[in-house]
């Protein structure tokens, strides 16, 4: 029964960094790797049906951020071609449903770090045309859009350009991702955005007091606006001393207790960190999460929400029309 519940659920992972690994190691997504967390064999074993692929703009690429994004996009589209029998691009909700019907993994292209825009709104529109459907506004530091969590001491939020980007992303029906942004920036986004937003890979700051996790107030506000947070498996964000699957389940218990079951999803951050979370080491281990939720007494309805249903509800609302080439710029 446990396995049937898992395999029949639409599992969504709202964040992974495998593109960086594939570009660096010149390997393919279709090949099983002994290291890291993500490849197609392990995605299939774990039952993942919708996978976000982040083009992470590392600080080392300052001065060539857009070029770095293009390099990772090239890697992404190369993988789509090579693995076309198992994975397909999802530009909108119709594409996502088609991928599920064909028993393929729906691949959603994202950018982690607004540095890729290099301060130009025209670049955002062109990234959208290239298939980007979600933007993590900042990484930990400061960029043209605003301050990340590492700059929180300044109490700085969005810049004027950041405000323009949020409004344009609403117009383009792109997902706005508030993971990594400063708390001031978080509140700026929620005030400005006309659509629900996501925190693609963040946990509870009460359960684990790490700067990258969200406060109770943030979680409640995100939930009240119809947003979803993807719980991440980064050990440092799960527990300071003994990170494990059981501790991750504690995050779910706590978030449900303060904000209900409708704001929780998954955002592994696989291949974005070294090491492994005990009990949930890579994408192939995701059935253990479903088993853990059953052991905690959660109803099947809520488990399906956590595994992907909540994100699917939000995607359908935000991607409520065709995006990309039909948008007049």
List keywords for this structure.
329 residues; TIM Barrel; 6-stranded parallel sheet; 3-stranded parallel sheet; 42% helix; globular; disordered C terminus
Helix content: 40-55%
CATH architecture descriptor text? Alpha-Beta Barrel
Q: Tell me the name of the CATH homologous superfamily.
A: Metal-dependent hydrolases
How many discrete structural domains?
Answer: 1
Shape annotation = globular
3D structure, described in words:
- With 329 residues, the chain is α/β, with parallel strands linked by helices.
- It has one domain: Alpha-Beta Barrel (TIM Barrel).
- The chain contains 13 helices and 9 strands.
- The chain has helices spanning 2-8, 18-25, 40-46, 65-82, 93-101, 121-129, 160-172, 183-192, 216-224, 235-238, 245-259, 287-295, 300-318; strands spanning 11-13, 48-56, 87-89, 105-112, 132-136, 175-177, 198-199, 228-231, 264-266.
- The strands form 2 sheets. Strands 1, 2, 3, 4, 5 and 6 form a 6-stranded parallel β-sheet that branches. Strands 7-8-9 form a 3-stranded parallel β-sheet.
- Helix 7 links the parallel strand 5 and strand 6 (175-177).
- Helix 1 packs across helix 12 (287-295), helix 2 crosses helix 4 (65-82) and helix 6 (121-129) packs parallel to helix 7 (160-172).
- It is globular and about 50 Å long.
What's a quick, concise take on this entry?
This protein is of the alpha/beta class and 329 residues long. It has helices at residues 2-8, 18-25, 40-46, 65-82, 93-101, 121-129, 160-172, 183-192, 216-224, 235-238, 245-259, 287-295, 300-318; strands at residues 11-13, 48-56, 87-89, 105-112, 132-136, 175-177, 198-199, 228-231, 264-266.
